[in-house]
Amino acid sequence: MIRKIPLQDVPDLVGQEIGVSEWETITQDMINAFADVSGDHTWIHVDVERAKRELGGTVGHGFLTLSLVPAHWLSIAEITGWDYGYMYGLDKTRWLHPVTSGTRVRLRTTMLEPEGRKGGTIVSINCVIEIEGADKPALVTDWREIFYTHSGDDSG
To answer: CATH no. for residue 80?
Structure first.
């Protein structure tokens, strides 16, 4: 069940784990599709035979891993009580472990301190893409979105 979080309640959740998504398997088809979209057809991503021989398997693009964050977040929670908003940025983004074809990943999220900005509220969520069976995560990032309400009741 997707957790609904009213924008006004975000400050009360700082430091709390918001949730964890289901596991998703990274397939070679996903990697190939991302290669086509991004234009990055480096052999470590798409040459299955060579990658098996030299690396043990193909490696998914780092930006493919990052691109999983929004869909996994939407399976965990939704911020409500706003009129419009948009992606504000990412902070402290690090790729810590490669994600190979056939690997299962999931997203673990923790709420960070919101901040007022230009009449809106920036909501920051610490996002960790975990790899099943790995001692290090694939990715860590602080995802930031800004939300606005017509009432103007937020600080900024």
So the answer is: 3.10.129.10
Residue 153 in any domain: the answer is no
Torsion region of 109: left, alpha or beta (phi above 0 gives left; psi -120 to 50 gives alpha)? beta
pTM, full prediction: 0.92
Q: Is residue 94 part of a domain?
A: yes
How many CB atoms are located within 10 Å of the residue 48 CB?
Answer: 15
Please count the helices (runs of H) and the strands (runs of E) in the chain: 4, 9
Answer yes or no: are the C-beta atoms of 70 and 63 closer than 8 Å.
no
Measure the CA–CA gap between 20 and 31, rounded to whole angstroms: 23
pLDDT tens for residues 11-37? Answer: 999 999 999 999 999 999 999 999 999
Q: Can you list the pairs that 127-131 forms with residues at least 24 positions away whose Cβ atoms lie under 8 Å?
A: 127/69, 127/73, 129/65, 129/68, 129/69, 129/72, 129/99, 129/105, 130/105, 130/106, 131/97, 131/99, 131/103, 131/104, 131/105
